[in-house]
Every structure is written in structure tokens, then in C-alpha cells.
Design a protein that fits this description.
By secondary structure, this protein is of the alpha+beta class. The chain is built from 16 helices and six strands.
Length: about 400
């Protein structure tokens, strides 16, 4: 017992040193990234000085389920990206007043202040933390454009946009990627409801913008059927992706043909899984325990329910991989042999809209979350990550810093 107390005390004493080390290392990396540009280096030092003196952006967070320095180090990377764009700043950092809210909201407030101060969707704030790439630079350009008060129209968008769509884009849910937010705004601008827009954004149309004319017809077809359940959208989209001629036949033959099309799509969607010849594997739960959270939406009587549950057979894992379009379907044997455990994070709301949002891998031996992936292997969105971290804290799970 005494040895255990000594170890715990020693770990606590080392924790502040580790935090300072990790944050200082992130600062050195950010400064190294702008060392060839003296003016960018000076802008970064100005940013760091004001942020350190007036906010908690680059301070460790001892209450987080992740390592205390992880979010601060991420913000330092974001400050480096802002500094590299110092030539387009409209306002200086020393006139920024921090806002209340999450660290993401606070960073977004700083970025908006620097480039103009107008409202920008949360999905674009993430572009300042991403690794440099053509896609990242394009999204940062969009952020600066919107922060200056300009419309999204006229930018190099992957699909045709109207003014109502551009207005809806500014209101896109923060849990969406930029591509999902664009598709969500398109559906809302065409007259679709929020439940349908969310279901379409969660389908392959939230990641791909090929053949825009054809998919716009598909979206109008879905909007014309308000009785369509949101969970039927993804199967229908996948079916029409492989049977492009059926939509046009439906348009000629009327509403009854549309109902038959939906039936064919759902049968096609379930057929491969029913016809699978691979033997089904099943296993017992690891004992870690699931999670459920109910939270109000927009201060109204409505709410949404977050659920994290363990997948305990190969059919469930295959359906998870198919629903989110990633490779978790190959993990069944690892789960059967207790080398891994797979968990599914889902969300449903008062309109019975059900969405798979995140697949989480936990090492059952060490109780460490080693992976968390959304649709098409995307990184966790802020809302889903927050729920995952609450679950991790309640079950005393450790989260790897790269998750």
C-alpha cells in the first residue's frame, strides 16, 4: 500500500513537468514551421503572448479524459497556421476579447476576430488544426472569406450553390465535416427538412460530389417524399449509385413507382448481408460497460440521445463497417480472440432520426481507446468526441493522444 501511494504521488509530481514539456515542444514546432518568414514568426509570438495572458487556450486541462496537454498543443498548432496567414489579418490579436464556451469556440472566436469578425461555421474552424494540404488551404481560404462578411457564392465550391444554400451553410451543425455541411446546406436550400438533410449528409453524398446534376435530382426526389424514414436514405443512395437509370423511370411512372423503388433499394441493401457465407462469430462482453446520455437541443423540450454500446458478433461489426464505410468489418476475429473490442457511438433525436457517428476500438487488456473513426475513416467530430471522452472518464479508460 505504501509503495502504491508513493507511486501515485510521484506521478502527480511529474504531471506538470510533462505538460510544460509537451506544450513547449508544440511551441518550438510551431516556431520552426515559420522560421523562414520573420514576419510570420513575429506574428506567432504576438499571438502566443496575448493568448497566454488573456485566455486558457494554451493551458493544460486537468479535467479532460485525454492527456492534459493534448488540446493545448493542438491549439498551438492552430496558432501557427493563423500566423502563417498574418498578411490577411484585419485586426490585431491584442484587441481580441475571449468568449465563454469550449476551447474550440474560443479558438474560433480568435480566428474570426483576426480575419474580420463575422460568423463562420464550426466545421471550418477545424481547418486550422489540420495538417497542411490543398484541402486544408482551401478550407482556410473559405474561413477567411466568410469571416470578412462575404457570401460563400463565387468560391470554388464542388457543387452549384444558391443564396439560400449559402445562408444555411453558416448554420450547419458543428459535428459535420465541411463536405457534409455543404451537402446539408444544399438539401436545406432545396426545401428539405433538417432530418432529411442530416441523413443525406451522413450518406456517401456527404463525402462525394461527383455527377452533381444527377444527385441533385436524387435529392429532389427524396424531398418530394416527406414520409421517407431517415434510416432508409443511405440504402437508397447506395442503390441509386449503382442503378442510375431507375430514378428516371420512376420520374416517368409516378409516385407508386417511387414506392417500389424504395422497396427494391431496401431489399438490395439487406441482401448481401443475408447471403453472406462467412460463419458468424460471437463473443461475450468485455465488462467495460456502455454509456447513454440524453441532452436537450437548443433549450427546447426536444432532446437527443447518445448511446455507446459494445458490438458482440461479426454481423454487427460488418453492419457497422458498411454503415460508416470503413474497414472495421475485418476486426471480428480480433474481437473473438479478445485482442480488441469494438464500440459503436450512435445518436437519435425526437424525430426518430438515428445516425451512426463513430466506431471506437478499445484494447480490452489495457483499457485504452486506440482508435476512433467516423464515416470514411474521418476523425471524430467535436460533439461525438465530447461524448466519447465522457464515456472514457466514467469507465476509467485512457485515450491515446493520437485519437
Amino acid at each position: 500500500m505504501s509503495h502504491s501511494r508513493y507511486s501515485k504521488s510521484n506521478t502527480s509530481a511529474r504531471q506538470p513537468k510533462r505538460c510544460r514539456y509537451e506544450i513547449d515542444r508544440a511551441l518550438h514546432e510551431a516556431l520552426a514551421s515559420v522560421e523562414r518568414d520573420r514576419s510570420a514568426g513575429a506574428a506567432l509570438l504576438e499571438l502566443i503572448h496575448h493568448v497566454r495572458s488573456s485566455s486558457s487556450l494554451v493551458r493544460p486541462d486537468a479535467t479532460s479524459a485525454r492527456p492534459a496537454w493534448a488540446d493545448a498543443a493542438l491549439c498551438v498548432r492552430g496558432l501557427g497556421a493563423l500566423a502563417r496567414m498574418h498578411g490577411t489579418w484585419r485586426q490585431r490579436p491584442d484587441s481580441w476579447i475571449p468568449c465563454d464556451g469550449s476551447r474550440l469556440a474560443e479558438f474560433g472566436s480568435l480566428a474570426r476576430h483576426l480575419f474580420g469578425g463575422c460568423n463562420v461555421p464550426s466545421c471550418l474552424v477545424w481547418s486550422w488544426f489540420a495538417e497542411p494540404s490543398a484541402r486544408t488551404l482551401r478550407h482556410q481560404k473559405w474561413f477567411r472569406h466568410l469571416a470578412r462578411g462575404y457570401s460563400l457564392l463565387g468560391l470554388d465550391l464542388p457543387l452549384p450553390f444558391t443564396r439560400p444554400m449559402a445562408q444555411h451553410f453558416r448554420q450547419a451543425p458543428g459535428c459535420f465535416s465541411v463536405e457534409q455541411a455543404l451537402r446539408w446546406a444544399q438539401v436545406r436550400g432545396l426545401g428539405g427538412g433538417s432530418a432529411l438533410a442530416g441523413a443525406i449528409a451522413a450518406s456517401r453524398l456527404g463525402e462525394s460530389f461527383d455527377h452533381p446534376d444527377y444527385w441533385t435530382r436524387v435529392i429532389r426526389f427524396l424531398i418530394s417524399r416527406p414520409q421517407l424514414a431517415p434510416e432508409a436514405v443511405s440504402p437508397l443512395v447506395e442503390y441509386l449509385n449503382q442503378h442510375t437509370d431507375e430514378l428516371f423511370a420512376t420520374r416517368r411512372n409516378g409516385r407508386k413507382a417511387g414506392t417500389l423503388l424504395l422497396d427494391r433499394a431496401l431489399r438490395w441493401w439487406t441482401a448481401p448481408r443475408c447471403a453472406s457465407k462467412r460463419p458468424e462469430l460471437s463473443w461475450n462482453e468485455t465488462g467495460i460497460g456502455g454509456f447513454e446520455l440524453v441532452e436537450p437541443v437548443g433549450g427546447s423540450w426536444h432532446s437527443r440521445r447518445w448511446t455507446i454500446r459494445e458490438l458482440t458478433n461479426s454481423n454487427e461489426i460488418e453492419a457497422e463497417g458498411k454503415g460508416l464505410r470503413h474497414c472495421v468489418g475485418t476486426y471480428a476475429e480480433d474481437c473473438f480472440k479478445r485482442r480488441s473490442s469494438i464500440w459503436s457511438l450512435t445518436c437519435s433525436d425526437h424525430r426518430s432520426r438515428f445516425r451512426r457517428l463513430l466506431t471506437i476500438e478499445v484494447d480490452p487488456q489495457t483499457r485504452v481507446i486506440v482508435q476512433a473513426r467516423g464515416a470514411c475513416d474521418s476523425r471524430p467530430k467535436p460533439d461525438a468526441r465530447k461524448v466519447m471522452l465522457q464515456w472514457a472518464a466514467s469507465r476509467r479508460l485512457r485515450v491515446e493522444k493520437w485519437v
